[in-house]
């Protein structure tokens, strides 16, 4: 199951208001200059041009140009080193993002500095927060370890999301999108603007639905967003409530490779691997997440600001599934005969997760004058977590004693986690053209969970794991010329194992924490017409957790620590605007992603135990050696823009054996977008925007995710590959009315 995203107090600015609105409202702008606006509150976990790291800021305008209802990962697929996944094949529902080959469990996500990653799985499930992009001011994508942040350690990248900032004038918006596969997004937004120069209220309601490209891969998503803000010249208070609810028909099983060119939309969910036909109609995932935050920011002195954000994230839900031929006594059912036909039964069960994550983040920031220290930050977070895992039976086919509907047949003791981190960062001017930073973080984790305890009978018990991580970071930035910057940095990041790393492995094979040594060297260049960045990275891992080739007793993959592994590559990005009506943006990453001295394990049902194969060096799974993307946009007439977008990903291996037969083929996908922005103010509209997005215009048959497993049986080695096929040519159209 899962849990996810957080929402928080917005720290963004007036960029959301169109230039025309700002120019025609000087009284409101003057009021804003006399109060502490959200954009004046520095987000402590964001990188700057002084922190010597690789990052990209994605603005609200860029997000809205692509916001037709697809999840945030798909709105970021033009940023460097990114690949995306979609279980349903449309970018709606369960989606994922990988950066530099690392998956979502290693990508640290914060919303206004507050941790988002689920405390036990480390995952981020954007499906739980539909249409978050409509309430987002900007997203900073940090590649590599990045600056110190709150929550789980960044082992490949960070996503720092900021919600909408203060808008000085009252507004209302109605946004609707519709298109292929029954996809429909409907959003209503409104805000009061500044009331008496100090107060404002903003609200949003969204509904997103899609039938999915894959059979029955439907999504029914809802979200509500509400903020209230008070601000004066020294104080900012903002309360935020955000809730998201999702019901999706399961499509996480993937498609057997034998069906890829025969019936690529087939979904075996609800059939229990073909044992139940027709498919069970309610094979669904259901989850709700509620977020409560309160930002308190106070200017203690002209150069000193303190921000504190208490928060509470509450989640709960289940996935329901049909299972055939189950052992009756495992569900509390007493059979007539322990060996008779009634000892096995078909069941419908629900597997539940309920979570509470609570705590506070803080940041004390100073910007001294007449000092070589240009900025000093003391920050951190105190986070508590409780997770409830239990299963209940809702129906059984047969049995002498069938429990009442909703009876729990498996109820684990609650999991508890405490995560405390403190960091200090200094930005220093070392010379006229040379600046440096030092960033020191100490993180303490205490995790209590129910897991195998290593006794011969395979028993489980409540256990406690503790970790203390010291993560230093250093960097230099040299101004070669006014438009050109050279930077270099070094960082150490460490990360504890996830819940399944404990529950799916015997105690004697239990993995340990991972450690990353991250080196970055880059060159930035920015002029009126050209912005370019060239970045070299080397990420050296000790004890990185990777797929072992082993499966647990229910078929889940088991991770193992590998002593040495690395990722190294070069990232290039350029934006060129030769004339005001034409822009070109391109990114490309070439990389090597290797494990040294890797042993792969395969279950051997002939001899018993496992068959081991050792590789002196091999490729890390799901890490393409080449990724690229580009966008070309041309304004043919005032307000009418035509854009073409493309992305490419090289071969990705499903396991760590570098076997082409178990890999995702390279793919190239091209999209086309047409937007028209009209300002019919005489009709009562501030703006009217109409847009059409055609995805995969060449109808490419491709997959962007998968998995594999195998075993030895009857003297033969057998492997089974499963893939997630993506939609061929499809479209989305939108009409946005802004008042």
Automatic annotation (TrEMBL):
Q: What is this protein called?
A: TonB-dependent receptor
What InterPro entries is this protein classified in?
Answer: Beta-barrel_TonB (IPR000531), Beta-barrel_TonB_sf (IPR036942), Plug_dom (IPR012910), Plug_dom_sf (IPR037066), TonB-dep_rcpt-like (IPR039426)
- Cross-referenced PANTHER family, in alphabetical order? FERRICHROME IRON RECEPTOR-RELATED, FERRICHROME OUTER MEMBRANE TRANSPORTER_PHAGE RECEPTOR
Task: Keyword check for Hydrolase, yes or no.
Answer: no
Q: Where is the TonB-dependent receptor plug domain?
A: 50-157
Q: What is the lineage of its organism?
A: Bacteria, Pseudomonadati, Bacteroidota, Cytophagia, Cytophagales
Query: What organism does the record attribute this protein to?
Result: Hymenobacter properus
Does the keyword field hold NADP? Answer: no
Subcellular location as annotated: Cell outer membrane
Give the PROSITE patterns listed for this entry: TONB_DEPENDENT_REC_3
Q: Which residues form the TonB-dependent receptor-like beta-barrel domain?
A: 252-676
Where is it found, in Gene Ontology cellular component terms? Answer: cell outer membrane
This protein's membrane topology, according to the annotation, is:
Multi-pass membrane protein
| Family assignment from sequence similarity | Belongs to the TonB-dependent receptor family.
A GO molecular function held by the record = siderophore uptake transmembrane transporter activity
What is the annotated signal peptide range for this record?
A: 1-21
> Which UniProt keywords are given for this protein, alphabetically ordered?
Cell outer membrane, Ion transport, Iron, Iron transport, Membrane, Receptor, Signal, TonB box, Transmembrane, Transmembrane beta strand, Transport
This protein's major location comes to membrane
